[in-house]
Design brief:
The protein has 380 residues and is α/β, with parallel strands linked by helices. It folds into three domains: 4-245, 4-Layer Sandwich (Purple Acid Phosphatase, chain A, domain 2); 250-323, no CATH class; 324-380. It has helices spanning 25-48, 68-79, 101-104, 180-185, 264-273, 300-310, 326-332, 337-351, 355-372; strands at residues 4-9, 53-56, 85-88, 111-113, 120-124, 129-133, 157-163, 165-166, 177-178, 190-194, 200-204, 207-212, 228-234, 239-245, 250-257, 282-289, 291-292, 313-318, 321-322. The strands form five sheets. Strands 4-3-2-1-13-14 form a six-stranded mixed sheet, with helices on one face. Strands 5-6-7-10-12-11 form a six-stranded mixed sheet. A three-stranded parallel sheet has the order 15-16-18, with helices on one face. The radius of gyration is 26 Å and the shape is elongated. It binds manganese (II) ion. Manganese (II) ion binds at residues 11, 59, 93, 195, 197.
């Protein structure tokens, strides 16, 4: 049996609004275009590599935001991949609900969509392969789709696919728990999984048995590092895979003591040291931490300007604070506005129940002290 060539992807989240962070509207729109460009790139790669199968493991698009035009674009692009078989197993962001385009759109391309939560089998005789897949058909799905399932013909190559949590156990709240042992017990040769946005591989007896391809395009600052797709050659005897980067943009989060980067010159040497290059593909978040000399605050605005001019997007989160000696100041300024202000604020911080409230009040204390002592500080 010659190996089956597989392109695996998922978690593209097409038409995601990118409205959660502080991205301006035009940049969010560019990011939505990045998702589409990435999708086109993946299909081109699959054609170039003459893939037999394209497996899309859910979260292809955002059910709540997707445009019909985007669905028609997907369908048209699939139609250009006539030499490969395309399978989709819907996930928690694109569940096959009654009103899902998966069910209502008149798909013209030869794509197979697993719309049911129980596993279904699609035989591909020419490849001596069976594809076993399931799809989310509601917003939350906790059932284990594999527990009772058995592949009917273990002489064939049995590929499982679905959106869920691999090897997290059966604890309450696990989305579609998928255990590698259960894939093997069900007669599976491989599981293509979606849901986790970082590339991850699972081996059993020296063989790659399951993988997350991750999100081909990183979607927010929680998704730093490399993002791409998996291309593999799979047979009963081999499971060889390569990770191919497809991301259009990349995210970096740089958390540093405020004392060490007070101006753009220090920032430049820090970036050099961390080997971070500023370019139009980078979204960067600089987090300033720790305490600094109240008379030498970091120039957050200058830092932000410096980053912004050479990156696609930059933000500065200033979690740092001036190093005031509060006890000393309470004594020194007793019975004055400053002393009373410190007393009252510390009381309120003490009494705050929520962590966010405590942080907000602490921040207010330091901003207030800067103002009352005639100091200036950039607020970003
Ligand atoms: Mn996802």
């Amino acid at each position: 049996m010659k190996p089956v060539k597989i392109m695996q992807t998922g978690d593209l989240h097409l038409d995601m609004p990118f409205s959660g962070g502080s991205l301006p509207y035009e940049k969010a729109q560019k990011r939505r275009q990045d998702l589409k460009d990435n999708f086109l790139h993946i299909l081109q790669l699959a054609r170039d590599k003459e893939a037999d199968l394209l497996l899309i493991t859910g979260d292809l698009f955002e059910h709540q935001y997707v445009d019909r035009a985007t669905i028609s674009f997907i369908d048209q692009q699939f139609a250009r991949c006539s030499d490969m078989r395309i399978f989709i197993s819907p996930g928690n962001h694109d569940p096959a609900l009654k009103n899902s385009y998966y069910r209502t759109y008149p798909w013209k391309s030869p794509v197979h969509i697993f719309c049911e939560k129980s596993i279904d089998r699609v035989p591909i005789p020419s490849l001596e392969t069976d594809i076993h897949g399931f799809g989310w058909d509601q917003w939350q799905l906790f059932e284990n789709p594999l527990s009772q399932y058995r592949a009917s013909d273990t002489k064939r190559l049995n590929i499982f696919m679905g959106h869920g949590e691999v090897n997290v156990g059966e604890q309450q709240g696990a989305y579609c728990p998928l255990r590698v042992e259960e894939v093997e017990a069900a007669g599976g040769d491989y599981l293509a999984a979606g849901h986790v946005h970082r590339y991850k591989t699972y081996e059993s007896q020296g063989r790659v048995i399951a993988q997350y391809a991750g999100s081909p395009e990183p979607l927010h600052f929680g998704e730093t590092g490399d993002h791409g797709v998996l291309f593999g050659q799979l047979s009963k005897s081999e499971s060889k895979w390569e990770f191919i980067k497809t991301q259009r943009k990349r995210y970096e989060v740089l958390a540093v003591p405020a004392e060490t980067v007070s101006d753009s010159e220090q920032l430049s040497s820090l970036l050099e040291e961390k080997e971070i290059e500023l370019d139009e593909k980078l979204l960067i978040r600089l987090v300033l931490e720790g305490a600094y000399d109240p008379d030498a605050p970091p120039s957050s605005r200058e830092l932000k300007t410096r980053l912004k001019e050479s990156c696609f997007f930059a933000e500065v989160k200033d979690n740092s604070r001036p190093d005031y000696d509060l006890k000393q100041m309470q004594k020194e300024y007793a019975n004055t506005l400053i002393g009373d202000f410190i007393d009252k604020m510390l009381e309120r911080i003490e009494g705050a129940v929520l962590k966010e409230e405590k942080e907000r009040l602490t921040q207010s204390l330091y901003i207030g002290l800067d103002a009352l002592t005639g100091r200036r500080r950039d607020l970003v």
